[in-house]
Amino acid sequence: MEFLLGGASSMCAVLFTNPLDVLKTRQQLEGELIAKHNLKKRSYKGIRQSFLTVVRTDGVRGLQKGLPAALLFQFSMNSVRLGTYQTVDNLGWTKSTNHPSLAPLLSVFWGGFAGLASATASCPFYVVKTQLQAVTSGSYTARFQHHHSGTLSAFVNIYKQSGVRGLFRGYPASVTRLVVGSAAEMASFSVCKAVFLRYQVFQESIVLTALASSTVAGFFTSVLMSPCDVVTTRMTNQAVSANGKGLLYTNIFDCFLKIYRSEGIHGYYKGFVPMYLRVAPHTMLNLTFWEFFKGLHEQWKI
Fold it and tell me: Which CA distances in Å does 57 have to 29, 47, 228, 240?
């Protein structure tokens, strides 16, 4: 049940936050491996311009590009991530009665472990989601677009071209992204929740506690995860050769190095604003729905 509750909560959250994920993906891919001073024209500069560009080129529906894949990604990722973390928390592995000071480190470790498991389960859906979100009918400065007609078509096309390996393109980067993000999110959420529950106002409201804790967790998650997120998007969306090998990046280290050499530190934080605007409310909604569903489960034993 812990796994089902985690997946359901994330699917509810992504319905609200997918448009920001689309904007984040477009910004991360714009001007790929081009120095900032050499990028003469930008279609996705800032939230407002990015929003207007998507609406002009793809219509209002463009803001929900890749939604079916995003729902599948969120369910597979968070059902495993939150379910795993809740299971080890129920077993008492995230706490130490003999050494209470170790609790934050245990939360980081098990949050990272949950991120590793969830990255493995959700990687194919992330690949499809990213490639669908990157496609636009308008002028676009990304190096490559995968023209899939839909979610199912994307799975079929990727498999035909590169086999199972294609569905796990960028897997090391995806693992790094989710391990860092999950460790930061779950650890900060647990610590903040424990701090807030010391006060009467939070003890009286599960939702208020979850909102406050997840707001802080979303901040730490977005700051620490952004470089890994950019690398994952780039490796996932890159063009491939006839035998399925990436034409721009050979591995995660090559991607990190090429971005730094071409775009500097700035390249690691492309799309940071929509990412934060997405991660913070998504984390808030996800963990709030999670706490709410757990409360219903405890109350009704469903």
Answer: 16, 16, 28, 26
Tell me the C-alpha distance between 47 and 216, whole Å.
Answer: 22
Q: Where do the structural domains in the chain lie, given as residue ranges?
A: 1-37+50-136+147-300
Measure CA of the first residue to CA of the last residue in the chain; give whole Å. Answer: 9
Instruction: Quote the pTM value.
Output: 0.80
pLDDT digits (tens, 9 = 90+) for 65-95: 999 999 999 888 878 877 787 788 888 877 7
What integer pLDDT is reported at residue 246 of this predicted model?
85
Q: Are 33 and 258 in contact (CB under 8 A)?
A: yes
User: Per CATH, which fold does 1-37+50-136+147-300 belong to?
Assistant: Mitochondrial carrier fold (1.50.40)
Burial label, 38 (beta-carbon count in 10 A; 0-12, 13-18, 19+): exposed
Please, what is the average pLDDT of the chain?
83
